[in-house]
C-alpha cells in the first residue's frame, strides 16, 4: 500500500517545480485571465467580503483581482496566521502597511474575522482535481479555518498544468467549490 504522506510530498514537490518553471509572462497572463473569468460571475459581483492571498512560490497572483475589487468599492481580506496556528482574515486597505509573519508572508494588522464571516475565499494551491480536492503547502491552515465555514464559497486559483486526475484526500480536507484557471472556471463535484 502506498504511503499517503509520501505520496502528497512527491506530488507537492513535482507540482511546485512545474509551477515555478512557468515564465513570468505566462504567470502574468494567467493572473489577468483569472481576473476576467471571475469578473463575469454573478456570485463574484454580489460578494462583499472576499479573501485573497499574497502570491508566493509561483502561485497565481491575485493582484489584478485586488485592483478590480477596490475599483468596485470592495475591501479585500488577507489571511492572518494566529499564534495558535489558526487562520483568520483582516481587511487590507490600499495604503495599509503589511508586516511579515513567521513564514515571511505579509499580513495586515487590525481586527480579524473568522473564515465564516466572508463571502468568498480565494485559495492558493499546489495541485487540484475536479472533485475539489486541493493540495496546499502542507500546513493545514486553510482546512482548519474552513471546517466551520460551510456557507463560504471556496475558490482555488490555479494554472491548468496543476490539475491532476485525482488527489489523495483525508476526511479533514475541505473541498473547493470552484477552481479558476487561465482557461476555464470549474465547478467542483465535491467529495463522493
Automatic annotation (TrEMBL):
<dbReference type="GO" id="GO:0009396">
    <property type="term" value="P:folic acid-containing compound biosynthetic process"/>
</dbReference>
<dbReference type="GO" id="GO:0005524">
    <property type="term" value="F:ATP binding"/>
</dbReference>
<feature type="binding site">
    <location>
        <begin position="8"/>
        <end position="12"/>
    </location>
    <ligand>
        <name>ATP</name>
    </ligand>
</feature>
<protein>
    <recommendedName>
        <fullName>5-formyltetrahydrofolate cyclo-ligase</fullName>
        <ecNumber>6.3.3.2</ecNumber>
    </recommendedName>
</protein>
<keyword id="KW-0460">Magnesium</keyword>
<comment type="similarity">
    <text>Belongs to the 5-formyltetrahydrofolate cyclo-ligase family.</text>
</comment>
<feature type="binding site">
    <location>
        <begin position="134"/>
        <end position="142"/>
    </location>
    <ligand>
        <name>ATP</name>
    </ligand>
</feature>
<keyword id="KW-0479">Metal-binding</keyword>
<dbReference type="InterPro" id="IPR002698">
    <property type="entry name" value="FTHF_cligase"/>
</dbReference>
<dbReference type="InterPro" id="IPR024185">
    <property type="entry name" value="FTHF_cligase-like_sf"/>
</dbReference>
<dbReference type="Pfam" id="PF01812">
    <property type="entry name" value="5-FTHF_cyc-lig"/>
</dbReference>
<dbReference type="GO" id="GO:0046872">
    <property type="term" value="F:metal ion binding"/>
</dbReference>
<dbReference type="GO" id="GO:0030272">
    <property type="term" value="F:5-formyltetrahydrofolate cyclo-ligase activity"/>
</dbReference>
<keyword id="KW-0436">Ligase</keyword>
<keyword id="KW-0547">Nucleotide-binding</keyword>
<feature type="binding site">
    <location>
        <position position="59"/>
    </location>
    <ligand>
        <name>substrate</name>
    </ligand>
</feature>
<dbReference type="GO" id="GO:0035999">
    <property type="term" value="P:tetrahydrofolate interconversion"/>
</dbReference>
<dbReference type="InterPro" id="IPR037171">
    <property type="entry name" value="NagB/RpiA_transferase-like"/>
</dbReference>
<keyword id="KW-0067">ATP-binding</keyword>
